[in-house]
Amino acid sequence: MSKSFLPLAALSASVFVVGTAEYLIAGMLPQVGSDLGISEGTAGQSVTAYALGVVIGGPAMTMLTSRLPRKRLAVGLMLLFAAGSVVCALAPTFGMLVTGRVVSSLSHAAFLAVAMVMTTGVVPPEKTGTAIATVASGFAVATLLGVPLGSLLGQSAGWRAPFWALTVLALAAAVLLAAVLPEQPAPATRLRDEVRVVTRRPVLLAIAATAVGFSGVTTVFTYLTPLLARIAHFSPAAVSGLLLAYGAGSVLGNLVAGKLTDKSLSATVRGVFGSLTGVLALVPFAVVWQPTAVLAVLGLGLLATATIAPLQGLILRYAGAAPTLAVAVNAGAFNLGAAAGSALGGVLVAAGALRWTGLAGALLSAAGLALTYLVLPRARSAARGAVATSG
């Protein structure tokens, strides 16, 4: 067993806990609404509040904690997440529920940033892509298992029970991180160095590629269930099976992309975006026949999270010695892209164009691909410039 195994496993497990929280409540909106005396639509705003906390609060939290030793910060962020989960579990009103969700969300992007930076410190440079994918797989597994299992617990034991479960898991993760993470001092870089890196053109372009490219996935995925039911005419049981296959494919695709990123970052990021654009463009035509619909879902699953490792690798390449804030902002960009894609898909569905969400997603994915071509040719100069900012 390598020295990096336990730290990477602990970070991945912690990411799983944080990743489960984001969409957990989406499967329990009727129970939340009934208990707190609000509509399901109002209850759904707690998902929006969490997303805004990640996009806005995550980078702010990263800046406020930039001078703390990395191990201590990772443990502290998990304890903050646990505290937010307790507030949610005890919330007597919708306002208190939103408060708890926001508190938990503040640790989301900040923890992911710390996890990614610590990951690069426990593996050799040639294994960075694989290590990033290993840690990020916690999110894919959260989508595959954490969210549905949490929703099932909420259905049987009440909507507060999953938040108590998250609290226990977060506390266990904090103990595990404290036990196995190596000591890493606070970065030698100053906060202004971190800010300067984020505002440089190559880093901004890479973050934009994340937001725009990932929005193409969620334009389709958010409405995949009605697409498979209404257009492909799958039964509810078949749709559930396909969603499970999609999640399993996401886990596999993420890990494979990590290994490919170690071999060639530029070829991987372009290959994933190019393939994703093609699959999304074919979705409207594939869903009219069930066998091709199955292939489209499997292809989309394999490629959906395969963007994570190369895109985070892109950020780390250009951020040089001051990567923490850039990674946190990029984590927010994933959430911003998810929200934008879902909103665009909703507009199309409302307009009666459910079948054609794939074409809109393909255009967004192609735009993300185009942005990577603006970034990658400047890799060497960008990397030198980012390192220079820490001097």
From TrEMBL:
<keyword id="KW-0472">Membrane</keyword>
<dbReference type="InterPro" id="IPR011701">
    <property type="entry name" value="MFS"/>
</dbReference>
<feature type="transmembrane region" description="Helical">
    <location>
        <begin position="327"/>
        <end position="350"/>
    </location>
</feature>
<feature type="transmembrane region" description="Helical">
    <location>
        <begin position="77"/>
        <end position="99"/>
    </location>
</feature>
<feature type="transmembrane region" description="Helical">
    <location>
        <begin position="203"/>
        <end position="225"/>
    </location>
</feature>
<feature type="transmembrane region" description="Helical">
    <location>
        <begin position="130"/>
        <end position="149"/>
    </location>
</feature>
<dbReference type="InterPro" id="IPR036259">
    <property type="entry name" value="MFS_trans_sf"/>
</dbReference>
<dbReference type="InterPro" id="IPR050189">
    <property type="entry name" value="MFS_Efflux_Transporters"/>
</dbReference>
<feature type="transmembrane region" description="Helical">
    <location>
        <begin position="105"/>
        <end position="123"/>
    </location>
</feature>
<keyword id="KW-1133">Transmembrane helix</keyword>
<feature type="transmembrane region" description="Helical">
    <location>
        <begin position="237"/>
        <end position="257"/>
    </location>
</feature>
<keyword id="KW-0812">Transmembrane</keyword>
<feature type="transmembrane region" description="Helical">
    <location>
        <begin position="356"/>
        <end position="376"/>
    </location>
</feature>
<dbReference type="InterPro" id="IPR020846">
    <property type="entry name" value="MFS_dom"/>
</dbReference>
<feature type="transmembrane region" description="Helical">
    <location>
        <begin position="293"/>
        <end position="315"/>
    </location>
</feature>
<feature type="transmembrane region" description="Helical">
    <location>
        <begin position="269"/>
        <end position="287"/>
    </location>
</feature>
<protein>
    <submittedName>
        <fullName>MFS transporter</fullName>
    </submittedName>
</protein>
<dbReference type="Pfam" id="PF07690">
    <property type="entry name" value="MFS_1"/>
</dbReference>
<feature type="transmembrane region" description="Helical">
    <location>
        <begin position="45"/>
        <end position="65"/>
    </location>
</feature>
<feature type="transmembrane region" description="Helical">
    <location>
        <begin position="161"/>
        <end position="182"/>
    </location>
</feature>
<feature type="domain" description="Major facilitator superfamily (MFS) profile">
    <location>
        <begin position="7"/>
        <end position="380"/>
    </location>
</feature>
<keyword id="KW-1003">Cell membrane</keyword>
